[in-house]
Amino acid sequence: MWTVIYIAPTKNIAEKYQQALAEEGILVQLRPVGSQQSTSVSIEILVPESEAEEAHELLTSIMC
């Protein structure tokens, strides 16, 4: 099962975090939130439930 670990405000930020997590060996999916016709669509960052804690810790260290 996939778990949301962060909701990025833009696609560019989501892709940056996706790449950083993937480089650490974490599987990552991105999923738009709301209407895709909107210009400011937020993006959910999802990882497998078994990797959620590790991914969240990595993401927190990347953000700081």
Characterization of the model:
- Helices cover 39% and strands 30% of the residues.
- It is an alpha+beta fold and 64 residues long.
- It has one domain.
- Strands 1-3-2 form a three-stranded antiparallel beta sheet.
- β2 and β3 form a beta hairpin.
- It starts with a strand and ends with a helix.
- The mean pLDDT is 92.
Give the DSSP E fraction (strand runs of 2 or more residues).
25-35%
Helix/strand/pairing category: alpha+beta
Number of domains: 1
Distance between the termini: 28 Å
Keywords:
alpha+beta; globular; 64 residues; single chain
How would you summarize the topology of this molecule?
Layout: E1 2-8, H1 11-23, E2 29-33, E3 42-48, H2 52-63
What's a concise summary of this model?
With 64 residues, this protein is of the alpha+beta class.
